[in-house]
Amino acid sequence: MRLLTVAFLLVLLAACGDAGKADEELLVSAAASLTDAFAEMETVFEAANPGVDVVLNFGASSTLREQILEGAPLDVFASANTSNMDQVVAAGDTVGEPQIFARNLLQIAVPAGNPAGVASLADFADEELLLGLCAQGVPCGDFAREVLAGAGVVPAVDTHEPDVRSLLTKVEAGELEAAITYVTDVASAADGVEGVHIPEEDNIVASYPIAVLAGAMNQGTAGAFIDFVLSDEGQTILADFGFASP
């Protein structure tokens, strides 16, 4: 009898667990620089769609691209640049044309108080400073190298991080004296990091595309999420986190 009671309780607990699950999971892969904005998107979208559980997968756009090309079961891809999205489109892994939903700019990130006195891109040639960039192939890394080359600066880089949030974490911890990240990432660090302006003539505008993936389990829900991102409400959320409109 005791064993039967335990078995019944286990079945009951399992049933309760299933009852608490959402009717549908929406798997969204998004660039690391979108972490805060898309976390807010998740909350608002789920509130408006009670049966949907948005599961966010953040990382470098190049890493997310490879996951998609290797067949990961994902529904939506939001990239920090167009070149990674273009490769996913070329492989036939998207439904319809990707849409640009946000834009971003680069900014030099330094620890609070800027103890090294970093003032411009020219400081990235200083071998005595601890400097970081995102790795090559990662949008923030490719953009940073393009900006430095345009300014005639050969960088003396000490670390190449896998994504922009890893790079920002090292600046905030004081392990780096300067790094090139996005304006939005500097803003996300609040008092832990300060930004040093990159002049408009030297800067690059990063365009962020989003698309439904061909392997989406429910393309209708995936499309609804993208419509939300592009809506006035979604654009307001992005603006609150420092992104510019497309």
Distance between the termini: 66 Å
How many domain modules? 2
As a percent range, the share of strand residues is: 25-35%
Q: Which regions have little confidence, pLDDT < 50, spanning 5+ residues?
A: 1-20
Q: What Rg, in angstroms, do the CA atoms define?
A: 21 Å
List SSEs in N-to-C order.
Answer: HEHEHEHEEHEHEHEEHH
Shape: elongated
Oligomer: single chain
Total helical elements: 9
Please estimate the helix content.
Answer: 25-40%
Corresponding CATH architecture of the largest domain: 3-Layer(aba) Sandwich
Mean pLDDT: 92
Q: Write down how many β-strands occur, each being a DSSP E stretch of 2 or more residues.
A: 9
Indicate the structural class: alpha/beta
| The level-1 CATH class of the largest domain | Alpha Beta
> CATH homologous superfamily name of the largest domain?
Periplasmic binding protein-like II
Q: How would you characterize the largest beta sheet?
A: 9 strands, mixed
CATH topology of the largest domain: D-Maltodextrin-Binding Protein, domain 2
Describe the structure.
The protein is α/β, with parallel strands linked by helices and 246 residues long. The protein folds into two domains: 2-103 and 208-240, Periplasmic binding protein-like II (D-Maltodextrin-Binding Protein, domain 2, 3-Layer(aba) Sandwich), CATH 3.40.190; 105-205, D-Maltodextrin-Binding Protein, domain 2, CATH 3.40.190.10. The chain is built from nine helices and nine strands. It has helices at 2-19, 35-48, 61-69, 82-90, 139-150, 164-172, 183-188, 219-230, 232-240, and strands spanning 24-31, 52-59, 76-78, 94-111, 131-134, 159-161, 178-182, 193-196, 205-213. Strands 1, 2, 3, 4, 5, 6, 7, 8 and 9 form a nine-stranded mixed beta sheet that branches.
